[in-house]
Amino acid sequence: MEQTLSIIKPDAVAKNVIGKIVDRFETNGLKIAAMKRVQLSAADAGAFYAVHAQRPFFGELVEFMTSGPVVVMVLEGENALSKNRELMGATNPKEAEAGTIRADFAESIDANAVHGSDSLENAKIEINFFFCGREIA
Ligand code: ADP
Ligand code: MG
User: Fold this and answer.
1) Nearest-CA neighbor of 21 among 64, 70, 59, 61?
2) Any atom of ligand 1 within 6 Å of the Cβ of 6
3) What share of the chain is helix, strand, coil (3-state, %, to 5)?
4) pLDDT tens-digit profile of 118-131?
5) How do residues 7-22 score in pLDDT, each as one tens digit?
6) Which residue has its alpha carbon closest to ligand 1 atom 1?
7) Which of 25, 55, 56, 108 has the fewest CB atoms within 10 Å, i.e. the most exposed one?
């Protein structure tokens, strides 16, 4: 069984579509193995997105990710990582396939509703960033 980290970003939390997004995961066979709502500090967001520290949009990304609460989840299931990426759609919602979370709930390339781990190695790091062992069940 594979695990991956998902984040419902501040734009989608503000739109009150947490349940609608979680439903996409459950309907498509992914189990919510852990879930919590948190307010990230700038230090939290900067550490989480450290791989993007050199990108021109890093400052905006940290500002956006701290602009309101997020919901972090561990998704579990067969091919959970690629299944989640498929359900999310492309980074830019304007390029995201119809029926994907980003096509349906996101407005722009920065405020794009959800995060998903991009490799199993990063999934492990990201899951450990937010959750301790007993929180994943
Ligand atoms: P993804 O979230 O699809 O894995 P990336 O890892 O490339 O995409 O980027 C991380 C996040 O940084 C994106 O989800 C988005 O919020 C933000 N981002 C990416 N590219 C841009 C950009 N050109 N301008 C502003 N924000 C961006
Ligand atoms: Mg990424």
Assistant:
1) 70
2) no
3) 45, 20, 35
4) 999 999 999 999 99
5) 999 999 999 999 999 9
6) 91
7) 56
Instruction: Record the pTM.
Output: 0.98
Task: For residue 45, report the phi and psi dihedrals to the nearest 5 degrees.
Answer: -65, -40
- Grade residue 93 by pLDDT with cuts at 50, 70 and 90: very high
- Enumerate the active-site residues: 115
When pLDDT is averaged across residues 55-64 and rounded to a whole number, the result is 98
Q: Which residues contact 117 (CB under 8 A, 6 or more apart)?
A: 4, 5, 81, 84, 123, 126, 127
**Helical residues (DSSP H) of the chain, grouped into ranges:** 10-14, 18-27, 42-48, 58-65, 80-88, 101-105, 120-130
pLDDT grade, residue 38 (50/70/90)?
very high
Check pocket membership of 91 for ligand 1, CB cut-off 6 A.
yes
Taking the C-alpha atoms of residue 123 and residue 58, their distance in angstroms, rounded to an integer, is 20
Give CA–CA dist 31/41, Å, rounded.
Answer: 28
Which residue type does 92 have? N
